[in-house]
Amino acid sequence: MKNLRNYEIINKKVLFRADLNVPVLDEVITDSSRILAIKSSIKNLILNKNKIFIIAHFRRPKGEVSEKYSLKFILPSLREILRIEKIHFLENLQKDKINKTINDMQYGEVCLIENIRFQKTEEKIDLNFAKNISSFFDVYVNDAFSASHRNHTSITGFAKYIPAVAGNHLIQEIKNIDSFLENAKTPNMAIVGGSKISTKIKLFNNLIKRFNCIVIGGAMANTFLLSNNIDIGKSLVEKDLVDEAQNIQKKAKQYNCKLILPTDVVCGKNLDDKKPFEFNINEIASNFMILDLGKSTTQVINQEIINSKMVLWNGPVGAFEYTPYDKATTEIALNIKENAKKLNIDILAGGGDTVSSIKNANAEGGFKYISNAGGAFLEWLEGNQSPGVIALKENNLI
Ligand code: 3PG
Ligand code: MG
Fold first, then answer.
1. pTM for the full predicted model
2. 60 lines ligand 1 (CB under 6 A)
């Protein structure tokens, strides 16, 4: 796979795939790491006097143009974080518009293309479109590891027609995740949280074989508890996955992987309930829902972390967006911050919510690596090569 360190791109028209699908709350970007991620590659391409066209998506407009999903809002942050004074903006991919922008631009300048998911030809892979668009450019760079699990035109299509190169951040993500998995130290553990087992079945099946211990937190733990005949009150649950939760537990036994499920929990009447109650797992009142791990479960997890040499974390263990149900997640993050370096524990974290809870706790310093990928991180851990990475590897036009 070619990358910006072993393949020089100079004075070219570059189509650059970034992942600018940043978290936004009340019109404010709450985490800019995906913008920061492309800085190194963009700098390199600017220094080498290329005309750089950033192509990216925002949310899921499903092929419809909609002001709500326009990428224009991100221009000021792009300018500030990438330290670029002027960024051109391309409203759509009509041929005359592309040509005009290319002509207007100086070498060493950057243009942002409007949300690529406004195009019907993006999510339903369209090779004709890919061929047409790539004919305006000399080279394609993919620096969007976090979107590379999508087989979409801007991720896999262009690499079929023009030389394709991996960006610095994409390489960094793969290197760090792979080296973590390959250099397995024991004892090790994985913390898996989040709301749905359905999205993580394959992950569990893979992790059980690799890890000595898996903590199950977040709403998905409720389905496991229910499968063990525990009354979980009004808690969120995936009833149709109770059998699957049992299978996962059986498989863990087979592979000698210890599963840690909650033994005590923090509950509320709903997500906005500011008066949390702690319950032992066998005593949950029927009008309450589980929203966080209890003290003693959190303590057990924190001790297990301290006894480990390697920890993987994906998914908050409670409803962390709703204070005070962020407590266990924050305590785990702070325990990592305090002890990981001191005790030489390698800790890898990934997933959008996981990263923002680590940042909320101001605990980034404890981690060996934090991936800014969500779905792509999970799929990589499941052992799937991303379609975007395969497309780069298969490109033979250089
Ligand atoms: C992400 O945020 O995980 C990536 O940008 C991919 O977005 P998607 O899940 O909407 O395809
Ligand atoms: Mg996603």
1. 0.93
2. yes
